[in-house]
Amino acid sequence: MKENQMEHISNIIDEVIQQEITPIKSGIKFLDETLGGYYPGEMTTICGDINSGKTAIIIAQINHLAVDQHIPTLLVLNNMTIESYLSCMAAYYCNIEADNIHTVLKSEQYKDKINAYLELLKEAPLYVVKAQWYENKPFFDKLEAYIEKNRIKIAFFDEMLVYYNPSGVESNNLIKTIALSQNIPIVTTCCTWSDREGIEGIKPFLRDLCEYGERHGNDVVISITNYEQYHIYQNERGQDLHGMRLMEILKAKGIIDKREHLFYWDYFIFRDFSERQKASLEAIRNSCDGRIETLIKKLDLTIEDT
């Protein structure tokens, strides 16, 4: 762990100017173009309701960074078993649709694909810490030493479960401290508060996210909205929202930035996002008739943004 240092501002300016700051690209075009990637020392929180797709987005990025790019990556698990998470990672990487995620690793149908993926995963610089709650400083001290020892370049905390209490805020601040002391980007996920009277047709407000704790220590706050969960099936432009998600950058580098991107849900399942999405669209065109022209138009619209 690094000790505090006192320096004259002139030395700090020279050091900053000479430094080469290289952000880590998430692999998600909208985020990389808008934010420039994840910057060292910064903390990003991805918020959303249950089943809005937060974990899927994290898994897609871990596969992209650790498995494909071989960037040393840390995953801190909280409310999922490692077996379930591993099954999800394999399903997303191999593009497997499964009714029961627990059967993926034992699937005879996809045995070769799964085994090939697991061999890639064994060689990936991915480190996993299983934790239940992040409430005490000794845990974070050990975690910081672990990050330094393994030269971790980016860390994901899924899921933080920050509630309305002092320990939740303290945990958030301790995670931010690790980002600063180790000079790495940290990405967390967190559920948003949605238990409001008359919630039907209403998506979360920015104040919900702030009250819930995501603003404490965060440089970037991203919101994921599953429109169908709020019984919204069409937007003001007349677009069909079935199977769609809305990603909004609510806070970026200290400012409120209401940048938003509407995407088809399969976008995050594919590790090679744009190319595999285009191939999927071409397969639909080749195998279906004009009765699904509406679906094809919807996918065309999404692909232009990928």
What's the short version?
With 306 residues, this protein is α/β, with parallel strands linked by helices.
Q: Quickly name the level 1 CATH class of the largest domain.
A: Alpha Beta
CATH topology of the largest domain: Rossmann fold
Average predicted local confidence, pLDDT: 77
Helix/strand class: alpha/beta
* Cα shape: globular
Which parts are unreliable, with pLDDT below 50 for 5 consecutive residues or more? 300-306
Secondary-structure element order, N to C: HHEHEHHEHEHEHEEEHH
Helix content: 25-40%
Radius of gyration: 20 Å
Work out the helix count: 10
CATH superfamily of the largest domain: P-loop containing nucleotide triphosphate hydrolases
Distance between the termini: 40 Å
CATH architecture descriptor of the largest domain: 3-Layer(aba) Sandwich
Strand content: 15-25%
Instruction: Give the biggest beta sheet.
Output: 8 strands, mixed
Count of extended strands = 8
